[in-house]
Amino acid sequence: MPKITYEQPDGTRAELEVEEGMSVMRGAVDNGIDGIVAECGGACACATCQVVIGAEWRDKLPAPGVLEEAMLEDVEGDDRRLSCQIEVTAELDGMVVKIPATQY
Amino acid sequence: MELDLSPKEVEIPAHVPDELVLPFPFLFGVKTKQDPFGELAAQVHAETPPIFYSKHAYPGGTPAWVVRTAEDLKTIHFDTENFSNKGFSPFSMIIGETWNLVPAESDPPIHAHYRAFVSRVFSPGAIAKLEDKIRGYAREYVEGLKDKGKCEFMRDFAFEFPIKVFMELMGLPQSRTKQFLEWEEAMLHSHDLKKMAVATRSVVDYLREELADRRENPTDDLFTYGVQAKIDGRELTDDELVGFTFNLFIGGLDTVSTQMGLQFLHLARNPEHQKMLRDDPSLIPAAIDELMRAYPAVTVFKTVTQPCELKGVKFMPGDKVVMSATLAGRDPAEYDAANEIRFDRESDGHLSFGYGPHLCLGMHLARREMRIAMEEFLRAVPEFRLKDGVEVEHYLGMIQPTAVDLVW
């Protein structure tokens, strides 16, 4: 299974195996990773599963859809994504996602 | 013409087993002196199966399925293929029009486009910019009542405050606040079909006038945003623009007022909780979410679009489904000691803003309004309690206290 590393704002890291086809959000929520709220349950409707993606991984992700783009407008920085919209694939093995200090 | 909310003689469809036809207490247009949460919701959880059918559960006294567990409600909130949001509110129909609320009454695939269009202006970042304005309005009310020693919280604060914020967003004059409040009352609380229709007509005509005005005189408000927006490369139709602006009106005013009323009712009855929040206002956001979990006011409705099954229960096209956040919030299978209010609850969240693709779009604004209202009120007003001898009543349907008489 691909490994995804979740990094907390204080630098603490958790490396998890996440099944292919699952979302990066689901991998966090199902494994009790703090800081990913995912209030809507993964429908791209709440913007509370934000993660920061480093430059080296950003291009490997499919571009955000119209809804995700709208949800992230006005959010600081252009390196944020909604983790419910990122499907884990073999290609993402080793990816590090940073969790912001707050989702609100 | 009084809106007929009386129970109708109903025929139970063939696919509904007799043993699943059960009573349901949350009937629209009914008032109760019982506690809708600790008593009525708890009773539904104790006495009924997870999914049941009730003869008068749909507004207007007609039958509907009631889904009482958070788990099943989440499943249905996500299942837009079998359960549609179209036409769940009566307003367009009672004035003989055809628009749907945008985006609340839309289904995929157009829903994502609507949602993207509206989300842009209600995103956390966009809403954060309103902080000072919202606080200014909250202060106006709190300063006006703090020296009086008493207030009727709904009338003196909760109903008008969200309207002020709405007027700000819409670029409407604050002097029209009372007018909007009158319309809102007639539409949502009169239970008189003629009054509802007259008020709805007034609101829709007003929205259309403002939309026409912004085409000529664009500013930076949400009417202008609507008339200038493109979805999927085209402009919005007249029906869509009315549906969008009406959705903002219906979604963001009475709901926020109601939740505020329920929160302050709880604080009035629980001085130790007031003290906790006065001593440490940084607990207010978590407290509001726990109070949202424990006192959810809103019920939405879905319509089944094709034959389907959940937990062995068969649904047929046209069946109505009651999606009660009130039941979700008190589900003992979802929450440990569901009827206890704990501000430090390690919670898995709640369904009080809905769930899935239709999750309340205004939740970032609503949370901010509720937080600021509580911060400002607790800062200025000393320990308050319910007026002696007052018996609290609630409207059912959307669960709203009829009055919250506070003294301090």
From TrEMBL, chain A:
A single MF term (Gene Ontology): electron transfer activity
Residue ranges of every copy of the 2Fe-2S ferredoxin-type domain listed in the record: 2-103
Cofactor needs: [2Fe-2S] cluster
UniProt entry keywords in alphabetical sequence: 2Fe-2S, Iron, Iron-sulfur, Metal-binding
InterPro entries cross-referenced by the UniProt entry: 2Fe-2S_ferredoxin-like_sf, 2Fe-2S_ferredoxin-type, Adrenodoxin-like, Beta-grasp_dom_sf
GO CC, any one term: cytosol
Signal sequence extent: none
One Pfam family cited in the UniProt record for this chain: Fer2
GO biological process: P450-containing electron transport chain
Family membership: Belongs to the adrenodoxin/putidaredoxin family.
Protein name in UniProt: 2Fe-2S ferredoxin
The species this protein was found in: Actibacterium naphthalenivorans
UniProtKB/TrEMBL annotation, chain B:
Gene Ontology MF terms in the entry: heme binding; iron ion binding; monooxygenase activity; oxidoreductase activity, acting on paired donors, with incorporation or reduction of molecular oxygen
InterPro entries: Cyt_P450 (IPR001128), Cyt_P450_B (IPR002397), Cyt_P450_CS (IPR017972), Cyt_P450_sf (IPR036396)
SUPFAM superfamilies for this protein: Cytochrome P450 (SSF48264)
Domain of life: Bacteria
Ranges that cross the membrane: none
UniProt-recorded name of the protein: Cytochrome P450
Keywords tagged on the record: Heme, Iron, Metal-binding, Monooxygenase, Oxidoreductase
